[in-house]
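Researcher: I'm comparing several assemblies side by side, and this is the next one on my list. It has 840 residues spread over two chains. Same procedure as the others: predict the full complex and return the structure.
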Amino acid sequence: MFLVWLLVQVMALCTYPNLLDSPSFPEDAKKRARRILQACGGNSLGSYSASQGVNCIREDVAAYITRRDGVPADPDNIYLTTGASDGITTILKILVSGGGKSRTGVMIPIPQYPLYSAVLSELGAVQVNYYLDEDNCWALNVQELRRAVREAKEHCDPKVLCIINPGNPTGQVQSRKCIEDVIRFAWEEKLFLLADEVYQDNVYSADCRFHSFKKVLSEMGPEFSSNVELASFHSTSKGYMGECGYRGGYMEVINLHPEIKGQLVKLLSVRLCPPVSGQAAMDIMVNPPVPGEESFEQFLKEKESVLSNLAKKAKLTEDLFNQVPGIRCNPLQGAMYAFPRIVLPPRAVEAAQAHNMAPDMFYCMKLLEETGVCVVPGSGFGQREGTYHFRMTILPPVEKLKTVLQRVKDFHIQFLGEFA
Amino acid sequence: MFLVWLLVQVMALCTYPNLLDSPSFPEDAKKRARRILQACGGNSLGSYSASQGVNCIREDVAAYITRRDGVPADPDNIYLTTGASDGITTILKILVSGGGKSRTGVMIPIPQYPLYSAVLSELGAVQVNYYLDEDNCWALNVQELRRAVREAKEHCDPKVLCIINPGNPTGQVQSRKCIEDVIRFAWEEKLFLLADEVYQDNVYSADCRFHSFKKVLSEMGPEFSSNVELASFHSTSKGYMGECGYRGGYMEVINLHPEIKGQLVKLLSVRLCPPVSGQAAMDIMVNPPVPGEESFEQFLKEKESVLSNLAKKAKLTEDLFNQVPGIRCNPLQGAMYAFPRIVLPPRAVEAAQAHNMAPDMFYCMKLLEETGVCVVPGSGFGQREGTYHFRMTILPPVEKLKTVLQRVKDFHIQFLGEFA
């Protein structure tokens, strides 16, 4: 986590309400804690909440979305979840189930975050790959969506289109134009849109902005805004708080069929409720201090410090990778990762095959053994046949990150020499 | 929750480590908090843990089981979960998946806790009912297991036997003899045993004791203890803490095939980790104060007060229900519920049918409308054809519970008159 002080304070007050009398906590932290506790059973984080989540927290999420998009959000459409992963799994479970002769197809980007492939495999759905355009900053190309859906229809029934924006592991931030095209495509093909927007606060490139699918959809006129089904996900685990241990998340659903909504509530109620402490963390994230509140200045300073630091490290990482012969790295426009392409010499590919390993796995294992740096091979996320990548987070402190990057650079040059 | 002070204190210290310097917290609470935080990434509840759970907490769970059973437990066999529901769902998912010509059958008690029927329906498994013996205090009868498995084999492949002990909603506590019989049966039929033991601390009848399946299995000799596969579940949500909002739980697996174990870890890692605050709550539950520690006296007092109060309410509820003509209630040996049988007059059954409702649902809705008392109809848990029940918790404070019981009594007598 990034130690945003207000979060720590409100969580402390909610966990130990005796502190509400302590003069060492700011008034706005107390106000937030009181509001949360009053909405909790027994005024405690230790009681079950409603399966959909604590009412006032869902209201705060709706108000947050309304402010973000300038388009109203309805608390009834908000579901608090156990991190975003839980929400994504739950909605996919509902969308994939239900008869039909052919199996349900779910379109996912390649490279993807492996939650998607894992859940689709669990659910017995067909994974329909669409490839992001590496030569174009990992942009999503609607022509590629058309190709993927056309080929998929020969063996399954494509029903869902998953988008990760900003991208994980690829870090691209989608343009408004691209999002409009995707929505139009989803409408034409009657696909349910699943927008994984957990990195919405993590945008670093000066020429990029986050546009939510909800906002763009709402502004495309009633033909789209009243018909395209959408679920969007957010999380306390990323952004400038990074409070992943609390497992807080929400999803907003738009145009969900009432019958499906009934099924969703039923499915959620089987698991009783998301962790109430995670729900409280979500409330702090969507309800940040405003000018005039005691915590405002410090909060703003902390938020800007975390985000500008990440932006600095994003640039640093891109620049350094692109100085290395045989490594090519797209700009890290958003999210928290670099996903550079590595050119592996044919002899290295042969050596990997001799070890019965994927070539990028062979590379990453050698990197780990020789430098202590642990990165994830691209084959874990999917990549175009014959290309190789790895994913690295930019979370280490700047000086440490510099050391890490230098080690990768030295290793890579030595590796090229070894297998030349 | 039941407000056990040590839990609140340790959770506060873990959430807000500044308090570790405060003189108003007992030393043993600080010691516990430090131990937990040192094992957490970034010394914080806000970071991801390992998918299986924080190491030192799994060690404390293993030590707890070892003390409870007098039989060693291995931390490697402990998985921390998001409440017990999550653990039960996950293990069932693994056991039910995987080919075979006929569908997997899972044996569950009737009446059951509806998590089971819901998850089996989600997973497309066959629910194989075995009936608990209402005339014999809801005991589990191995002859009935034999009947159920014999009939099930005609249309599915029974692989799992679920046991809830102490029972929910039925409140029975199984004898050691019964557990031995069940284990022998599972061994003969090669069934995976799933022991839902979340009410293990909630035993009230003086002539009953909780025996864990793990302990009994371990003491039956190597033929059983090395072969019968078992998963046992526990939770922070019940017992004398009742900290359900934190979603803490664990499962212990015994004799799990290494390949299945690999699958389990993979499946868990997709969801990243259980909430770390719930893991911390679990640590406090399995690591209570010992004589000599500062919190010992107060903790003991609180624990005994919660449990003796529940025992008193269990007896009160049983006694009052059995004074009402047409209600018959088995002893509430354990757990937190009464599940009385109600005799409904034929005219009431007809009236329910005219309303297109199950007769017990009709009864419960009328009870709610006329008295404000909300109970759950037996049909939600399953019951023998033609019998009717409802489930009521014994959680309200004694005086309130008395009022509730009196209202149910008055309503029932009036209901019998109305439909005589």
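Model: For your comparison table: Chain A has a mean pLDDT of 94.
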